[in-house]
Amino acid sequence: MEIESLKKEINDAFERSVYPGDQNIAINKKDLEYEHLKDFIGVNWHQISVDFIVPKHTSSLCFMTPLAFCYYMPAYMSISVENYVESDIVPDNLVHALTIRTQCDLDKLNTFKEYLGANNSSLGDVDEEVVWFYERINNFTDRQKKTIYKYLLFLVQEHSADYPDNAPQIAIDRYWKFFMEK
User: Measured between alpha carbons, how far is 99 from 21 in angstroms, rounded to an integer?
Assistant: First the structure.
């Protein structure tokens, strides 16, 4: 899919998205990330530029409420499609957020954490991760889910060399394949 075509698809699918409200941006207002999330208050997703996102907000989506996550997702997708290199780790963070976790994923992360000598507390369990995923994903319409599928497919087709772990394809295989057009 060409860049302009995908950008139009994103815009069309999300154009009627409703702003979640100033009080419904951050999950935890005591979190350090909340100071960064204040920048999103009152901001329409169409107004967001790569300069707004990079470097301060590259991972802000993960700290947003499910409604804010869904509202700002198209901004992050559009930015990473149009400005792939300049968007830095935005595509990686989107792929991570759009991939439903398995117990195997968490086991690998815990093993790596132990290897680094970090404290032995668990990173969480798969049930929490699955709930986190569906709390966000269930707010998308089917059309928006199809667009997210196309975005992930774009990453597979155009930037597979940047993903030796095949992360965008894994995201598709675990969930988004159900939204490919037949």
Answer: 26
